[in-house]
Amino acid sequence: MNPSNPPTGQSTPEIEELRHKYYNASVMDLRMPHDHLMIVRIKPDEEVPPFSGGQYTTLGLGSWEHRVDGGPLAELEKPKLIRRAYSISCPMLNLQGELLANDEIDYLEFYITLVLRPDTDDPPLTPRLFRLKEGDRLHLGKKPVGTYTLKPVEPGNNVIFAGTGTGEAPHNSMSIELLKRGHTGRIVSMTCVRYKGDLGYLDQQEQLQKQFSNYRYGA
Ligand SMILES: Cc1cc2nc3c(=O)[nH]c(=O)nc-3n(C[C@H](O)[C@H](O)[C@H](O)COP(=O)(O)OP(=O)(O)OC[C@H]3O[C@@H](n4cnc5c(N)ncnc54)[C@H](O)[C@@H]3O)c2cc1C
């Protein structure tokens, strides 16, 4: 546990033990395009596991951690690790504007929207994720999985990705993987959101379009 970042939830010796048992990663960087949308970089205690663009892993926090919506915490007698699947996104470009390959970074990036569903009995994760700050600890799945990958794509194929909201996440890491390997076909990433402010990657996407004539981002 990082002593400079005490956990924001409840604290008893039992809970400290559970945190120690389950939490295996730290928040390295966190950007909030608005208060319901986050781009978060998670650094595992061990090496970043290998993954292919399009795959997902799990993030988790204890049911004892506080919620951004002030909702109820799970009863302490029944503490549980709440885990959900998240597609691995991608920072796309480094500060010099160069493509950043998935295997060149020592963290995993996620693009997450806050889901507020007070009507569910199952303890939700996102209201807890949205209380995180840099340095906080959490659970990260050990092995990225998923068959939604670029396996069937040939170098000259035209590729169209279509998603809504944070459904853009897997397409970001797939697009970068294609560009990095010198894909010659056209790549179009389309996304649908309610407001322009919901486009968390707009700056990077515009930069990418300028650099690669075969890449288009349509929102
Ligand atoms: C393979 C996979 C990849 C995923 N990748 C991402 C990702 O990159 N980013 C991301 O934000 N979420 C992603 N999700 C959804 C994520 O796993 C959680 O379901 C979501 O974050 C809500 O978690 P929760 O615990 O707060 O609510 P839950 O208890 O999980 O869900 C409560 C209800 O909200 C619904 N719900 C889930 N997501 C949304 C949403 N975006 N808008 C409206 N309703 C929703 C659920 O279907 C459920 O009915 C992914 C899910 C899967 C299966």
Topology record:
Elements: H1 13-22, E1 25-34, E2 37-44, E3 56-62, E4 81-87, E5 108-113, H2 126-129, E6 137-140, E7 159-164, H3 169-180, E8 187-192, H4 202-211, E9 215-218
Parallel strand pairs: 7-8, 8-9
Antiparallel strand pairs: 1-2, 1-6, 2-5, 3-4, 3-6
Residues 56, 84-87, 111-113, 115, 117, 120, 122, 124-126, 165-166, 169 line the site of flavin-adenine dinucleotide.
Q: How much of the sequence is in beta strands?
A: 25-35%
Enumerate the spans where pLDDT stays under 50 for 5 or more consecutive residues: none
Bound molecules: flavin-adenine dinucleotide
Oligomer: single chain
Provide structural commentary.
This protein is α+β, with helices and mostly antiparallel strands. It has 2 domains: 13-140, Translation factors (Elongation Factor Tu (Ef-tu), domain 3); 159-218, Nucleotide-binding domain of ferredoxin-NADP reductase (FNR) module (Rossmann fold). 16% of the residues lie in helices and 26% in strands. It has 4 helices and 9 strands; from the N terminus they run αβββββαββαβαβ. It has helices at 13-22, 126-129, 169-180, 202-211, and strands at 25-34, 37-44, 56-62, 81-87, 108-113, 137-140, 159-164, 187-192, 215-218. It has a 6-stranded antiparallel β-sheet. A 3-stranded parallel β-sheet has the order 7-8-9, covered by helices on one side. α4 (202-211) links the parallel β8 and β9 (215-218). The longest helix has 12 residues, at 169-180. The termini are far apart. Residues 56, 84-87, 111-113, 115, 117, 120, 122, 124-126, 165-166, 169 line the site of flavin-adenine dinucleotide. Flavin-adenine dinucleotide (FAD) binds at residues 56, 84-87, 111-113, 115, 117, 120, 122, 124-126, 165-166, 169.
